[in-house]
Amino acid sequence: MHNDVTATGHAARIATVDALLPAPLPFEVGGDSVLLSAEVGDTTAAGLTTCTGLGPDSPRSMWRALVEHRLEVQLAGPDPAAGLDALLTRWDEHLRSLARVGDTECAAVLSRPSRDTAGATELLRHGFAPVGVLAVRPAQRMAAGPDATPGVCIRHATPDDLSTAVALQLELQRYDAQFGRITLRSGVEELITKELLHHLERPEPQVWIAELYGQPLGMVVLQMPDETGWIRHRVSASRVGYLSSLAVSEAARSSGVGTALAAHAHQVFDEAGADVVLLHHAVANPRSTPFWYAQGYRPLWTGWQRRPAVRSR
């Protein structure tokens, strides 16, 4: 079985799934990556495995396990679900040679195009759960500007807003930690403070505060198209905006603050010429999932996770 043949068949299949998916390329093995393959009849599967580790003081440690084994998947042929099943079995064998059974700081992770549902049953059978979504919203530049929300004023954040911004972000992190995408570390407040201060000290920080009748009760943090090289490859678009986070205090939920912040963010992205806006959210979050899809987003990639990566048989 040749990787190029699988990649060609996978690309042809994915092209029919979602027009906003980027064209996949053949895998290139390098460094510590390993290429796995499987065949089931006329179906072929290829997977590129990588492993990355972080220290608990890394800002990214809030968003993942400290050790992450990742699998990129390409499937070609008439039965992609069977191909994925066989590939996951091969990956399980590979992981057992690398990871300790029951280590909760070690996770197995893979992303699948959300509309490519073939293999979802097999992922569940192998112990994976859909944890996070990378959602996309195409630009709507012909739309009018956002309607005013009574009592809500949105303004640029300044360094004087640091304590408010940290409190809002901490409240959001603690709520989202219930759903598997976030790991609360012992130094989480310090990590959040350092990251927000970095944003706020910029000449034109893309951090916006929403005041409800004079009280700062919401915040949105944006990354503009010239800052999104780290995620641009996940979507077929030239100019990509990324909505890093939107936090609303519990006291202001259902008041229109979140909707006003989202509308303001989309206007900022439209003015910057973004073709699409991306954001991450937890699948199981009962607030963010309906909220974001009401704002024009839809799933593009679904992140599946098994944590610990290796469980006892």
UniProtKB/TrEMBL annotation:
Pfam families tied to this protein? Acetyltransf_1
Asked if Acyltransferase is a keyword of the record, the answer is yes
Q: Which organism is it from?
A: Amycolatopsis dendrobii
Q: Does the keyword Transit peptide feature in the UniProt annotation? A: no
InterPro entries, per this entry? Acyl_CoA_acyltransferase (IPR016181), Bact_Acetyltransf (IPR050832), GNAT_dom (IPR000182)
- Family annotation (PROSITE patterns): GNAT
Could you state a single Gene Ontology molecular function term? acyltransferase activity, transferring groups other than amino-acyl groups
| Ranges where the N-acetyltransferase domain occurs | 152-313
Q: Which UniProt keywords apply?
A: Acyltransferase, Transferase
Judging by the UniProt lineage, the source's domain of life is Bacteria
For this entry, the protein name equals GNAT family N-acetyltransferase
